[in-house]
Design brief:
Largest interface: A-B, 37 and 38 residues
Strand order of the largest sheet of chain A: 3-6-9-12-14-15
Distance between the termini of chain A: 10 Å
Order of helices and strands of chain A: HHHHHHHHHEEEEEEEEEEEEEEE
Oligomer: homotrimer
Shape of chain A: globular
Structural class of chain A: alpha/beta
Largest sheet of chain A: 6 strands, mixed
């Protein structure tokens, strides 16, 4: 893949791009159904789930809506309402389902422990949290703030990921393991960003304006990395595990330590791969 | 608010005090009902929840008991039992509901992303975890240790916050985001303490006596801050994100790093505001 | 206990050994029933739970299977299927229930806040996560990878602990508080290992081979400790809270800081006790 990308002069830090090895939306849906059908035969304990989650549905949109609704449903948020809400969002803004697909490709591209699309879609709470956030963000942009916050709260309860619904997130996102990820209200996340569990994009000060980080395309945030305040992490940069960042970090560099110091500059253009 | 406080010579590090801008218990309950009624009209998806959680109840106590019971109920802990338990606690010790109210005010005072009381009460797991802990602590003090530990366990499962029921916690507490907060058995938390997610108040040694930290009034503990052993963090002190504290920290200072070093002393009297 | 162990020349860093103060499997089951019966009388709110979880069952295996199944059951994984699965695993490989018992003893030996076996078995999500993992690992070894991953995902949702089903874990394990623990696919954990919440055993690189840590017998990993890559942490070593380890750490030493530096060597042979 690297060679393929480089031959085309494309780096993840330039933003998401569909690559020749990625599946089209139709091919992806076909592949997901094949995987589910195989697993349903091999493991009868999972057959009924795989049927109700994947095999009975007519489209990727319906399966994704079912997955999100099934996870977030509670005694106070009906699964049927949530499924309708997801389908409305997908219909109103096709960029949402496009981003769901890009994220599926990103996980397969970057996580060596994941070799099936269904594994990511059905079992990775980081993936499910990001797609749920895309629905909450759509609600927020429509001015439906109370419901957006109810979804944020359910995502935090169910997936242990707390993303304010105002946060803008790009395509090709990997949130691996995901427990404890927090992103404050005015954070902005570029494309091709990978982050591990316990990552914090936190605020500084108590004003109402921009007070959270902006993360460039292709950034990798290691486990427990903390970025505080309205700082900018440049594209293609890697922030090591446990690092605390309180100032801008230039593009294509590597930062580690508490507080962060830059140990490499303009070194490796694709850390998130 | 600062001016108001200062005019009265009051700092958060002196302990909780009801301020003129805070709502009385009756005014708070009236405001909560107004917020819920507005959201129920604006967002029909939430109407049934808002009715059963807020609008059908006659008092703040009943709404708070309903919220806690609904969140902690499981196949082995009935919601009706839990609601009865909360109401018993509120009746037996009115300081508990007073603290619930103080915490609501504290969140509105300090969290720029929160501008509604219902948002905090219904959707912030840190707030709900603290109020649930107050019930577990009441049980512990009554000698009902098995049930107190069952509640602690449910709080850890549902809110991802693990507070031993013996821990004493003051009023005006903000636990923001809250995932991964841990407080060991002999911890003591003052008033007006604010803490972010992943904060640990941990033990040292294996004895049965005091082995956890004491946190003074008005302290701010940043994301991922870890305080270990029977140390004292003085009032009004700020512990930076990712800091590891293993020794006393004086009042009104700022500590950062692994291990902590004090970078400012007696500087800013209200870090948690 | 220390004297007893030392008189026999046994240290935890030499691997798990049943000690004279430990209960036999039968005595342990008898003790668990006695504790449950006492609590059911003292706290009627818990009586029905204690009956259905402990008192109606004929063996430790059935109680353990009930606990795991009840916690992991969902709308897509039936509790009855899960209980059958656990009992199949215990029957097929008696070493699994032996390890469940060893872990119960380890928690009682090492956690000063725990003085009842039922408290650990019923209420400690770290204990429940490890025993659930043992079932997922058994499935993985049988080639039932899809179901193993479904269990891993449920453990991550319910207990906030993400352990790849391929990970090999020894006996006498304590995971205290447990929120946010992550162990990648090729990690190996020895006997008598104790770890606090937020511990990460993470990968380096993107290859498919060994890319995660190997943790020796008797190691203690403090809260938030992060060990990255195919490094070896020697037996009996203590890794301090918040430490980031990216290179081998010798046996019986103490490492702290970001990045880790070794502050004591060959000092204290039983840190996890």
């Amino acid at each position: 893949e690297e060679t393929e990308r480089e031959a085309r002069g494309h780096h993840p830090s330039q933003g998401w791009r569909w690559m020749p090895h990625h599946l089209s939306k139709d091919a992806l849906w076909k592949k997901i159904r094949e995987e589910a059908a195989e697993d349903a035969v091999a493991e009868p304990t999972l057959a009924s789930t795989l049927h109700s989650t994947v095999l009975v549905h007519q489209s990727l949109e319906k399966t994704m809506a079912f997955v999100i609704a099934n996870k977030l449903a509670s005694s106070t948020l009906l699964g049927t309402h949530l499924m309708r809400l997801c389908l409305d969002a997908f219909e109103d803004d096709p960029a949402i389902i496009d981003a769901c697909n890009a994220d599926l490709q990103a996980v397969i591209d970057r996580d060596p422990a994941c070799d099936k699309y269904t594994q990511c879609m059905l079992y990775f709470k980081g993936y499910q949290a990001v797609q749920s956030h895309r629905i909450a963000h759509w609600l927020w942009q429509k001015g439906r703030k109370a419901l957006a916050m109810a979804l944020q709260s359910r995502v935090s309860e169910v997936f242990h990921v707390d993303i304010h619904p105002a946060v803008s997130i790009g395509r090709g996102i990997l949130m691996d393991h995901a427990t404890g990820i927090v992103m404050g209200e005015t954070s902005i996340i570029g494309d091709n960003v990978s982050m591990l569990h316990h990552v914090t994009l936190g605020g500084s000060g108590t004003g109402k304006g921009t007070r959270h980080p902006q993360i460039g395309h292709g950034v990798l945030l290691g486990a427990g990395a903390t970025v505080l305040g309205p700082v900018h992490v440049g594209e293609g940069t890697k922030i090591g595990a446990g690092t605390v960042v309180v100032a801008d970090v230039p593009s294509h560099s590597v930062a580690v330590g508490v507080p962060a110091r830059i140990i490499k500059s303009n070194k490796k253009p694709e850390p998130c791969q």
